Amino acid sequence: MSRTVQTFDLASGVKIPWLGWGNGSGQARNVPVQAGLIALQTGIRHIDTAQNYLNEGAVGETLANSGLLKDEIFVTSKLSGRKSDPSVDGYTVPVNEVRSAVQESIKKLGFIPDLFLIHSPHVAAHADLKKTWQVLEEMKDAGELKEIGVSNFRPQDLEVVLDGAKYQPAVNQIEYHPYTLAHLEPVLAIQAKHGILTESFGPLTPLLRHPTGGPVKPVLTKIAKRVTESNPSLPIPVDEVVVLLLWTRAMGVVAVTASGNEERIKLLAEISYLPENILTKEEVQEITSVGKTVHFRHYREHMEKDFALPDLPDGTT
Ligand SMILES: NC(=O)c1ccc[n+]([C@@H]2O[C@H](COP(=O)([O-])OP(=O)(O)OC[C@H]3O[C@@H](n4cnc5c(N)ncnc54)[C@H](OP(=O)(O)O)[C@@H]3O)[C@@H](O)[C@H]2O)c1
Questions:
Q1: pLDDT at residue 85, rounded to an integer
Q2: Which of 257, 271, 245 minimizes the C-alpha distance to 201?
Q3: pLDDT tens, 255-301?
Q4: Nearest alpha-carbon partner for 129 in 119, 142, 144, 140
């Protein structure tokens, strides 16, 4: 039986599958072709990669081996800079090299990605952030890029690119889960105003990286039990991981997760086809409110510089 990919709309109307599989973390990063093929064969239709995962070529290879057409898969890549290049300061890409760096990505992938992001505001020297965005705008105008967006952008970075922008970023990909909600409030307010879709990386952080799971974990356990009892015909067992990913979706946020484990990749694919509204509004609200009592972030280098943290405990005790 054919399954329909469950999507969100970008501001342009382009559809983006709500669950993406990334090859930038965990085992998926080490065996990107093998794991990517399992992902596509089991039904994942959204792959997230980046220049500094060194896996863009693997996406092209995976797609070629899968027998699927490019149009059946949504692919994102990112301008990351080249940390290993001693002549380049950190991750920055000089403005006059942005176009060729993007072209290099396209060459490695073998196609134009559906979405191309500035991986972090630190990829450009601060004075050059706007100009870097303008290069992406020009490439979009020239048909060299499709959708363009940003990642790890704080309020001050969003303001820079939004000021007089020809194209507003389609997405901001950030570490998003219940424990970053309080910190992200100013970012999310700007995004709501400008129709910028939020993409969550690290969506499973409360369960996988918080030392105790924190106050949200028992709430997820309770909801998983309720969902299991009231939906006996669901194709997969519903546990805390499933509930947390469904919460991300219910918040209108794309979940970019990962796995290199065959069974867990299959599970992620099954989750991506579940119907909407499995969680009640009250359950979504409970996860949100309990999450906002704590601040805990895994990928700290990205968003904590020059962006005030909320006055909250980290929930580890
Ligand atoms: N823009 C950025 O700066 C940025 C930063 C970080 C990540 N990302 C993107 O986001 C992707 C995901 O990031 P993330 O790894 O932090 O996401 P995550 O969803 O928080 O964690 C993924 C990890 O969860 C495990 N997992 C998957 N399904 C599971 C399940 N059912 N039960 C238990 N564990 C499960 C996987 O381990 P196994 O392999 O063992 O299954 C994997 O290592 C990356 O690959 C990358 O594409 C972007």
A1: 53
A2: 257
A3: 999 999 999 999 999 999 999 999 999 999 999 999 999 999 999 87
A4: 119
In three-state secondary structure terms, 165 is coil
CA of residue 249 to ligand 1 center, whole Å: 16
- Rg over alpha carbons for the chain, rounded to the nearest Å, is 19
**Residue 286 three-state SS:** helix
| Distance between CA atoms of residues 64 and 68, nearest Å | 7
Q: What is the pLDDT of residue 82?
A: 65
Q: 201: closest CA among 170, 177, 169, 171?
A: 177
In this structure, which residue's CA is closest to atom 33 in ligand 1? 241
For the whole prediction, is pTM greater than 0.90?
yes
Distance CA 147, CA 14 (A): 9
State whether the beta carbon of 22 lies less than 6 angstroms from ligand 1: yes
Q: Is ligand 1 within 6 A of the CB of residue 205? A: yes
